[in-house]
Amino acid sequence: MPSTVVVSARGEQRIRAGHPWIYRADIAAVDATPGAIVEVRGPRERTIGHALFSDQSQITLRMLTTGTTPADEGLIAARIAQALRFREALALDATAYRVVHGEADLLPSLVIDRYGDYLVVQTLSQGMDRLLPVVVRTLVDLLQPAGILARNDPKVRGLEGLDQVVEVLHGSIPDTVDVREGPTQFAVDLRHGQKTGLFLDQRENREAATRYATGRALDCFSYNGGFALRLAHTCDQVEALDVSADAVARIRANAERNGLPHVHAREVNVFDELRRLERAGEQYDTIVLDPPAFAKNKASVTNALAGYKEINLRAMRLLRPGGYLLTCSCSYNIDEALFGEVVHQASIDSHTPVTIVEKRTQGRDHPVLVGVPETYYLKCFILRRVE
Known about the structure:
Rossmann fold; alpha/beta; Archaeosine Trna-guanine Transglycosylase, Chain: A, domain 4; Transcription Regulator spoIIAA; 29% helix; 20 strands
């Protein structure tokens, strides 16, 4: 007998509306082991699809198929191959990019990033974690990587009752891996770097910034200097700010590695430094705001909005007339309309009229699945001071 889960009428409606997540409140009956691929039935016992099952998470089901199409290990392998073909068709000017982006590749809770000859994998649910051997075999067959690393250390795995682990699954993983993004070279620490090593989702926004960036530039929340190093190819001087001493050291090392002596990194609290720069009467032609997620949950939205307004207001006051501000939010809980309103209020309170030159999102290798707002998390506005 197949493993089965029966959902409520509301759960069935959600599946038919195209959302892959079914929550615990909409589960009527379960006959399955943790992490199994299950047949999903509606209240009238008709099959409506197949899914990954979790007995721990509030997200009990992550849909793989709808209708009577079966889901098995062969489906997982085929979808990884499809995702890889899509990335190859993008012809990205980079050796580091996302190969599988979870729900948007119809592989819920699976992340695979490529760094040159190495791959980093995250399995973020019980079901996908159980399928990890299939994932590894498929990647070895398709790409023959020199090494595959599991970066299964995100806290979200705890919601699934899974351990946080970092382990080599295939081949070997060096201390650092050399990758290229456009003209910029990076040495990446796959074991300890943020996310899986780099913030790959901003790659195309960094490229877009160079279409406007000139003169004196300020890169706030710089992390490893992704924006700063890219801006250095079109700007005379670049200041990179980050609160982390390790990040500042990486920026300096990457600047030296790329022969960019006009990139200067400082270890500061960005909020405090923006206020200090304003008091000092400093002015910039180009400013980037790429902060970490201020709103990690709905409860933190109010404080997050205040933080976004503060940094945008300060940045606008530091911007020369005709200058450009690239401002971002990676908080899913702050949608595009809300982020746009924050930018508007910052413009009013700073007495700085700005126009929107571009609205952007995460890179094409991090696609957004229509009807699943959780896959649209990165908002990026390129603004011009028109005064």
